[in-house]
């Protein structure tokens, strides 16, 4: 090494900011996540090489490895799936799919190939292109979810609205029927409590912080198998007995993954292009920070928007539909007319 | 004048039924909110809604039962007297039936009102958790429609001969079900089920009866 280069190296080493332990851990986790993704891809490709001669169906940014015999069957489904995914993901986020090369196995063609192939898509030649497209889309969304790391996988069940599932309406019902002061205060618009109910803020002791003594009695009453003396004391109003019963019995987050999925959808809608990439980019950050990055807004603003949407999604199932009332009145009128024309008095 | 007489006689025949159904209609909403009324602290919303839904099944039964009872009682004396009294009146058949229908409908009003008042009393005395609402007027309106529907159906049946009733309630359904089974056995569609779906789902006339009846709900 030449003298100037050696001096420069010494200078760089001397001026470099020391790396603290947290950064090292974070970097290690990143490397581990990348290694895991690489392993999935490598296994998938290796399995394809081993079992069949793979071919690739390409539709937009979708790359599906498939037995050449089934290429024609898969291609239309891939096109449909891509059109849906592109519309849902947008330009930037759809680039995430560049790294996804799933193997598509057809059921019945090779009985054991699927189990050897590792992660991928199980297809069925009897299915229509639309049905197969849905399978591909589901697999893509699951893969994207896993991309977010364990924190996201544990926290939410989805990153996009599934057809026929109204996440906001479900969140409203949960805010109403969950015995927790977190959901009650959140319902009233206290965003700090919403964050706790959604699991965005660490809570040391959920039983004590998120529930009142009355809530605890209700929650423990639902353990129908419990009939001990302590349980009876708890139900009689002794909160100390209730707290004894909660030992070793973890309390689930008050709001379910339906509510968190609704929040992710809201964050993506606020964040616009590239929102999902920002959510999934750094798996070491706390969820709240990742959601702020997703929405490009402070957590309070995101929670406020979500709360407003949830309140607006309130269902009114007990209201009678106007059509029902009119149809019933019409049929009633028809029946009454039949009665006026009855044959009872006809002499002929 | 004639309507008043018809109403009076009809009331005499069916007063017991009117009073019984009215008392039942008044009591039903009170029963459904018993748990909500007793709670002074946090209410288990799921239990409360379970109670309300459980009692909710009784509303359509009571509505239809009240309608059927009044409809059958409306024609019972005419059938017993072989319609001699009605035939002796200087009015056409349709006019007489209309008077009977009007009087029967009017006799259903106390039951409808009793349910409405009962629902109002029940919901005003109950502790309703946040996020839930009481629907006393919606339930009462629905009850009124269901009662009227049941009454009209059986008023039409009872207005005819016994033979017509047997055909409408026994022979025709049996024939339809048997034919349907034959069609199904030959690989055809289940027409009875399809027809029932049209009747029960919006905008079928019986959707009113089969949707959950919740006095308290979100």
Would you tell me the overall average pLDDT of chain A?
Answer: 83
Strand content of chain A: 5-15%
Straight-line N-to-C gap of chain B: 48 Å
- The total beta strand count of chain B reads 2
How many helical stretches of chain B? 10
For the sheet with most strands of chain B, the description reads: 2 strands, antiparallel
Order of helices and strands of chain A: HHEEHEHEHHHHHHHHHHHHHH
Number of helical stretches of at least 4 residues of chain A: 18
Domain unit count of chain A:
3
**C-alpha end-to-end distance of chain A:** 125 Å
Shape of chain B: flat
Give a written overview of the molecule.
The complex is a heterodimer of chains A (348) and B (218). Chain A is mainly alpha-helical. Chain A has three domains: 3-51; 55-147; 167-211 and 251-312, no CATH class. Chain A is 62% helix and 5% strand. Chain A is built from 18 helices and four strands. Chain A has helices spanning 3-15, 21-51, 71-94, 113-117, 129-147, 150-155, 167-177, 181-187, 191-197, 206-210, 213-221, 229-236, 239-246, 257-271, 275-281, 287-295, 299-312, 322-340; strands spanning 55-59, 62-66, 103-106, 120-123. In chain A, strands 1-2-3-4 form a four-stranded mixed beta sheet, with helices on both faces. Chain A is globular, with a radius of gyration of 29 Å. The N and C termini of chain A lie far apart (125 Å). With 218 residues, chain B is mainly alpha-helical. Chain B has one domain. Helices cover 78% and strands 2% of the residues of chain B. Chain B has helices at 2-32, 34-38, 45-56, 58-80, 84-88, 93-125, 136-159, 162-185, 191-200, 207-210; strands at 133-134, 216-217. Chain B has a two-stranded antiparallel ribbon. The longest helix of chain B is centred in the middle third of the chain and has 33 residues, at 93-125. The model of chain B has no long low-confidence stretch (mean pLDDT 85).
